[in-house]
Write a structure and sequence with these properties.
CATH superfamily: Ribonuclease Z/Hydroxyacylglutathione hydrolase-like
Strand order of the largest sheet: 1-2-3-4-5-6
């Protein structure tokens, strides 16, 4: 059984997720987009140590605290293969909006569809879900999927930024995410959680 904790960070209220197995101190941090001190305080309070940091996509509000966490915990940084370049060439207006953005380091590994990240009893399968960005990925662990800015509760991520593609994003949701079990909990990059089953019937953008 995995535990999922939400630490909301930054001016865009990014959902940073801390994921670990019951009884384990090693964890995975997903989308640390800002406020590194807030994330570190949560980890220290709960006696958790990141083994890996995964960003679902390259945008600054999902990568802005990677560097401070890597420096403190000497952990790995993972991101989708097609977003490696974008992570190193951030949108200037987005960096300026965030205020506390720190350039992320080069990734330890670039992730492709089907790759499995394992640490301390947690297995996360990488799903390629491009459309919000070229290299957007979703992270699936039985019963849970972390969708970044691809799928939100009853809406989808914007596709008008560099590397975005509406048709590709809708196809990613229909052909990849909607193939998961209906009871799968969706943990998006912003906003409240939902389920795959709910989105199949209530999300007007992909019905």
């Amino acid at each position: 059984m995995i535990q999922v904790h939400v630490v909301q960070v930054g001016v865009l209220a990014t959902n940073c997720y801390v994921v670990h197995a019951d009884g384990e101190s090693d964890c995975i941090v997903i989308d640390p987009g800002g406020e590194p001190a807030k994330i570190i305080a949560f980890l220290e309070e709960n006696q958790l140590t990141p083994d890996s940091i995964i960003s679902t996509h390259a945008h600054a509000d999902h990568t802005g605290s990677v560097a401070p966490l890597v420096e403190r915990y000497d952990c790995k940084f993972l991101i989708g293969y097609e977003d490696v370049v974008s992570a190193a060439e951030q949108l200037e207006w987005l960096k300026n909006m965030l205020g506390d953005f720190v350039e992320p380091p080069a990734p330890s590994e670039a992730l492709r569809h089907g790759f499995v990240v394992s640490t301390a009893g947690v297995e996360i399968k990488i799903l390629s879900t491009p459309g919000h960005t070229e290299g957007s990925i979703s992270l699936y662990s039985v019963g849970h999927v972390f969708t970044g800015d691809t799928l939100f509760r009853e809406t989808i991520g914007r596709f008008d930024l560099s590397g975005g593609d509406e048709q590709q994003e809708v196809a990613s949701i229909r052909n990849v995410l909607f193939q998961l079990p209906d009871e799968t909990v969706v943990w998006p990059g912003h906003g409240p959680s939902t389920t795959i089953g709910h989105e199949k019937v209530a999300n007007r953008f992909v019905r």
